[in-house]
Amino acid sequence: MRNRILFALAVLGVLAGLVSAFIYGQERAPQPPAFNPAPNPYAKGIYAQGIVESYQASGANTNIYPEVAGVITQVLVAEGQEVKKGDPLLTLDDSVPRATAEQQKSQAEAARTLLEQLKAQPRPEALRVAEAQLEAARANLKSAQDQLDKQMKSYELDPKSVSRDTLDNVTNAFKVTKANLEVAQKQYELTKAGAWVYDIRNQEHQYNALSKAYAASSALLSKYTVTAPADGVILSISATVGSYISPQGTYDTYSQGAAPVMTMGAPQGYLGVRVYVDEILVHKLPAAASIQATMFVRGTDLSAPLQFVRMQPYVSPKIELSNQRTERVDVRVLPLIFKFQRTGKLQLYPGQLVDVYIGAG
What we know:
Layout: H1 2-24, E1 46-54, E2 62-64, E3 70-75, E4 82-83, E5 88-92, H2 95-119, H3 124-157, H4 164-193, H5 197-222, E6 225-227, E7 232-237, E8 244-245, E9 250-252, E10 257-259, E11 262-265, E12 270-278, E13 291-297, E14 303-311, E15 316-317, E16 332-341, E17 353-360
Antiparallel strand pairs: 1-12, 1-17, 2-11, 3-5, 3-8, 4-7, 5-6, 7-11, 9-10, 12-16, 13-14, 13-17, 14-16, 15-16
């Protein structure tokens, strides 16, 4: 009985092994790829990596840096917003330069008031005082003259009637009053002449210097409001209220380096593609007049023809396309710029990587 059971188990084990071998020996059909690899549509096409950017007639995206350092108090735009040239983008804390500008404005206004005062001389009230002093000096001279004449006439009639000391006193008094009249006359003429031309010129220079200092402070104060340098679209904002920024940009937490405060692109229906051709393939590029290119969107079966715009005639070190800022590369590349029309089918954004094949038409 026991031997029969063992025999049955052995037979079942053999059957199970045969069934398993049959099942696992079946070849399964391969799964279709999620997307087809980018094919080369040209007989002698050149492959290159490209990066999408806003289309510019010259240059690339506009990186915005402030001209002064400070703490952001307001961010007045949002990512994706269209702006016009001169529109304010953000403001910085300007309490110190604003106080300086107001102080210099007050100094310039004080200098201007003093200049107007000098030009308005003589003051009517001061001139009337000088006239009164001149009349008083004339009256004093007349009184002294009368006293001197009386004493001299008495002395001529009887020399003993007037002492020599009295005669000297009235003579000296006459001379003093005569000198006082001359002083009053000169003072009147000086008052009537008004401010000295050299004083006016000096005050004009003071006013001009303070006005220019105020203009410089006002110009510096305006730098604390960052404005759009051209019409465009805000692509990215790297700082927010309370962040400290400088002419070197702002600190990027992820890359741990400096980054522009904002990046702007052109507000057009086209996007640009900056393609980097390896230096060993540059000699295989067709003539500029016959260059054609096709772009393939990574991770999809989407492709689109590109329109050649220009070539940057300078071979430069390869840029980092993998966001690894510390990667060292020795490859040098030649940038070519293409463009394509933005449509609803192609959901592409500046900064996105694409595969590009370049051929001849």
